[in-house]
Amino acid sequence: MIDAICLEIKSRNNYLNSSIIDSIYFGGGTPSLLEEKDLTKIWQTLTENFKIAPNAEITLEANPDDLTSSKLDVLVRTPINRLSIGVQSFFDDDLKYMRRAHNAEEAMRCLDRANDKGFSNITLDLIYGTPTLTSKNWEKNLQIVSESGVPHLSAYQLTIENGTPLQALIARGKKAAPPEEKAVAQFNVLMDWAKESGFDHYEISNFAKPGHRAIHNSSYWSGDPYLGIGPSAHSFNGHSRQWNIAHNPKYINALLNNKSATSESEELKPSDLYNEYIMTGLRLSRGIEEEPIIAFGSTFLNIFKQNISQHIDRGYVLYSAGRYTLTRSGKVFADRIASDCFVVDGGQ
Fold first, then answer.
1. Is 7 helix (H, G, I), strand (E, B) or coil?
2. pLDDT confidence of 320, banded at 50, 70, 90?
3. Beta partners for 207?
4. Averaged over 307-317, what is the pLDDT?
5. How far is it, in rounded angstroms, from Cα 145 to Cα 335?
6. Are 23 and 215 in contact, with CB atoms under 8 Å apart?
7. Cα–Cα dist 231/184, whole Å
8. Which of 164, 28, 156 lies closest to 89 in space, CA to CA?
9. pTM reported for the whole predicted model
């Protein structure tokens, strides 16, 4: 797998048009399982094939149970300078409901270990809206984040994906479905906490202390081009999207036989690019502007204004000098507001 990943890196070194790379994200499955020699080999291949900024954000995604003292000793010796830790909750009832491998004690211990090893640039993932998460425990989760000193938090409402074990358990009545009203109430608590704790709510699900907005997250939601390496990885170059073979042995076999790892690709129509701009831009605190909408086609702005007007009237969207941003109440309905503004097949 490591050899195949390195071969793909070499074969796609022109995808980003020699841009300087300011964010590298080791994510996907469980990259924290990689050994030091694996991380070193991937990093060397990246530096040989791309221009990487000296201060680039280099993130490794990890579960709390993976971040043992010995694993952190390994990571300290690599270029990794940021950890994204999938805590999800500091309470065992929630972790059991979500079928997580770690427990609450491991979640707390891994934070202490990471700090002791010198990792200060840490982001945590939390999930709210689960049937097991009480209002008191949600507030306690956020208090722990404040006390830990981590500079970034990603907090997501629990969604049940089709085909997942959790979805099957809910369908069979073995697990309770997440109540929508609880999620809304906990999202409001989250926004209050962020304001009181000095966290900038720069994207619907992302919160940062000053100077600690994630480059990775910000680039994605801003529609910047990105290159995905590995099985199932997606890439976007500004006008087309492609994704890799979603099967490990087939992915490896393709690259070791000098074949492309790309499974499918699609050229994005102006309506696709418009829809993505609306979907991602409305999630950002800076919102969306009229000028980029006009660039997609002459009729898109008229369509957008017609569709967004109802949400301005309801107090969900604020308009000022060509910019549209979600109000606090509008953030609860971000996805619905964006979908109301979508166009289908051309839009002109």
1. helix
2. very high
3. 153
4. 98
5. 27
6. yes
7. 35
8. 156
9. 0.92
